[in-house]
Amino acid sequence: MPINEAFQSKNNFFSRFKSQYALQGISNNFLNKLEGRKPTILSLINQDDLSKLYFDFFAKAEIQKEGNGKIVRKSLGSFFTKLVHTFKPNEYCALDNPIKNLFDLKNESFYISFIVISQAYKKWIATNPQELSILKIELRKRDKNNTLQLDKLSDLKLLDLVFWTKANPPK
Q1: pTM of the full predicted structure?
Q2: How far apart are the C-alpha atoms of 80 and 58, rounded to whole Å?
Q3: Where are the alpha helices (DSSP H) in the chain?
């Protein structure tokens, strides 16, 4: 099912999204609020109005703590970056802490890091087509079973995968 169709269905998109990305510390109450705002959220993503999306919904999200039910304000930058990446994987990276740390952005917010790294990827792709071509050739040689399905990966996603692998080396 295409992402826009899955998003617009009434099947608890945000609960499933949270599970798929193993996002922690997000209450069902907050997820239900997002469900009620799906048309606005999708419109902001489609318009590329990411600052409004982030600051209206994720910068200071009100989360109900389990157990005592107390409401706390929490930045959900990781949730935000993964949501935008899900809808625009050719334009924005899927950011996590190891990538932020790799690029020495550990003291920056997820929002700032997300914008900076996504733009840096796009700039590198635009100015280094030959290096990108070499990277693809080398990966094809090594990926004999076509596990990566390189033909289906955007250039940005490929670059993101390279840096994700560097930031999360096998143990």
Answers
A1: 0.85
A2: 6
A3: 3-8, 13-20, 28-36, 38-46, 50-53, 77-87, 97-102, 110-127, 129-142, 155-167
3-state secondary structure of 128: coil
**Residue 29: CB atoms within 10 Å:** 12
One digit per residue, the tens of pLDDT, for the chain of length 171 reads 456 666 666 668 888 877 776 667 777 788 888 888 988 999 999 999 999 999 999 999 888 776 667 888 888 898 899 899 989 988 999 898 999 999 999 999 999 999 999 999 999 999 999 999 999 999 999 988 989 888 888 899 999 989 999 998 888
- Which of 27, 34, 25 lies closest to 7, judged by CA? 34
